[in-house]
Amino acid sequence: MSLDIIRDNQFNIGHICTRQQCELGLGDKVAMRWVSPHFERQDYTFNDMERLTNRFANVLSGLGIGAGEVLFTFLPKSTEQFTAFLGSLKARCITGTLFSNFGEDALLDRLGDSGARLVVTKKSLYRKIERIRSQLPALKVVILTDVSEHISENVLSWERLLAVASDEFATVVTSADTPSVLHYTSGSTGKPKGVLHRHRSVLHQNRTTREVFGLQPDDLFWCTADQGWVTGTSYGIIGPWSMGVTQVHFAGGYSAQHWFELIQKEQITVWYTAPTALRMLMREDGALFGQFDLSSLKAVFSVGEPLNPEVIAWGSDKLGKAIFDTWFQTETGAIMIANRPGLSIQPGSMGKPLAGIDPGILADDGAELADGEHGNLCLRAGWDSMFITYLNNGSAYASKFKDGWYYTGDMAWRDASGYYWFLGRSDDVINTSGHLVSPFEVESALLELPEVAESGVIGAPDDLLFEKVVAYVNFRAGTEFTPELELKIRLHIANRLSSVAIPQEVIAVESVPKNKSGKIMRRVLKARYLGLDAGDISTLEE
Amino acid sequence: MTTIEEITPVFREVFDDDSINLTRSMTADDVEEWDSLTHMNLVIALELKFKIKFALGELQTLKNVGEMLDLINRKLSR
Asked: B60: distance to nearest CA of chain A, Å?
């Protein structure tokens, strides 16, 4: 455990990422270089971040939102995201982040389960909350970042609120165990679960930022992850700022031209991105890469899904850079296992565990397995960034632990050199572009359509997305499966859940295989899709 | 009715946003929900609306809505 960033027992993440950096003499250093899609640049120093986050913490106090209460940001990439996140942590609120592409069902599940009191969003996204607001009795206030005047007594203007808030805020000394960040994650059954972290997580987020990325004071770090994702908060906010490193945040979406222009123009030194993005870059015209000077880049890191060896070879060939794969989960809060400078890269492997992280490969009966044997990837419980519960679901939390081990849900093996190798999930959860999608949620949303009698949803291998969502659908009698109906399905899933949950294939079937208890046998569908033997189907319904 | 007037309701339906008012200079960065996955929804919706087919990757190279309009108009021989 490294406590060198903790001063006077202050574990508050918001304080450490702003005020503490100012106290360390970095007040005038750029904390965030904000680059618009059109390459307009705006710098925010640590002094600026301190003032802005103080203002937001004071806004919350003024609204009567206090310690332990839940608020969410529901924003695309925007500067307010960072102010709201750190300001609310200073106020000791529990702070959640929502992907801006979430639909109404996804929002209702998360805002409803958490009893969220406040949401910070944009006018164009507020319409989704407006439609479900009557089902959210705990939701007290919505703050809109792009209106100049208050809309009503509980739909307020960010600009107006911050304009009159004080720059001064004394963050209460916050204990390590105080709840901090909330991210929802999908499982193979049931509703998404709220993964709750505590302020202590900053220790491991800081440590891994130093030890994996090797960041130095003069580095310029770019993490492409959306803040709706744990990577976007752990490493797009907390890790680098907890050690006073400047971050670039780019508001534009994927564009090979723009991304490389950004790296060249801003002289980015360390880049953290995702395999899907790297695979998209691999598909670009090879001549593109030669047009840019990427000499500032020291290393590229990746997270979200296993990184195929071909990507690592491409990085070396076309970019002249090593690409290091890292592994962690929403529940682990920070990187657990990684390839990193100083270790020889084993292409396709997850890497080796970080100091203080004790993984094991366990059989289903809990027996520890030897090198080379396939089993459950588990972590010895107790690391600093370990989640503290699934909100309102203690039984699900307890089910993840046995005999002092946390069961990650991933299957893996360890080689004789100590490298870990990912095999797949032990459940039906679909990992598409690094996002976990619950087949149950997609099946439930499909059933909302009058044309759908039943459905079974699986993840199938995909060259770009790692896994894609595939829906087997039994349509009601008299329904013709037309391109218009397929579009209707795709739009419905996008608008109810999110764009990542859109089925990339919809396959019409006469029936969906179920066992005698009525449970959808997704492994039978997956075997059918892959053209494999379905194995034991003795429990299949007649 | 101009092509931009014809595709505006398509955009509004695909991105579930009645406030979208298209201009030729708009890009995916200007529409909240427009990402690489919803882009496929847009492609399918436009193909169905105009009864045309886009070649693989044909829409990926377009820089903005204006170029998309030009491509649609070319396919419709307008």
From this structure: 10
**Closest-CA residue in chain B for A250?**
B29
Contact A219, A18 (CB under 8 A): no
- Going by C-alpha positions, the residue among A188, A231, A235, A190 that lies closest to residue A209 is A235
Is A483 at the interface with chain B, CB within 8 A? yes
Burial letters for A74-111: b for 16+ Cβ neighbours within 10 Å, e otherwise?
bbbbbbbbbbbbbbbbbbbbbbbbbbbbbbbbbbbbbb
CB B42 within 8 A of CB B11: yes
Interface check for B9 against chain A (CB to CB < 8 A): the answer is no
For β-strands A118-121 and A430-432, DSSP reports them as unpaired
Residue A109 φ then ψ, to 5°: -60, -45
Q: Is A100 on the interface with B (CB under 8 A)?
A: yes
B contacts of A490 (beta carbons < 8 Å): 40-41, 44
pLDDT, tens only, A264-296 = 999 999 999 999 999 999 988 888 888 999 999
Whole-number pLDDT of residue A1: 43
Of B32, B36, B41, the CB nearest to A76: B32
Round to whole Å and give the CA distance between A178 and A176.
Answer: 6
What is the pTM (predicted TM-score) of this model?
A: 0.91
Task: Give the H/E segment covering residue A101.
Answer: none
Q: Looking at the complex, report in whole angstroms how far the Cα of residue A491 sits from the nearest Cα belonging to chain B.
A: 6
Decide if pLDDT at A191 tops 70.
yes
B61 touches chain A (CB under 8 A): no
CA atoms within 13 A on the CB side of A114: 34
ipTM of the complex: 0.90
A21 closest CA partner among A179, A336, A176, A237: A237
pLDDT digits (tens, 9 = 90+) for A339-387: 999 999 899 999 999 999 999 999 999 999 999 999 999 999 999 999 9
Ramachandran sector of residue A92 (left: φ over 0; alpha: ψ -120 to 50; beta: rest):
left
Coil, strand, or helix at residue A230?
Answer: helix
* B36 CB-near residues (< 8 Å, 6+ apart): A253, A254, A280
Whole-number Å distance between alpha carbons of B62 and B24:
12
Instruction: Count the helices and strands in chain B (H runs, E runs).
Output: 3, 0
The whole-angstrom distance between B19's CA and the closest CA on chain A is: 8
Distance between CA A295 and CA A274 in Å, rounded?
21
Nearest to A366 by CA among A405, A400, A418: A405
Q: How far apart are CA B35 and CA B49, in angstroms?
A: 20
In this structure, what token pair is assigned to residue A426? 């032990």
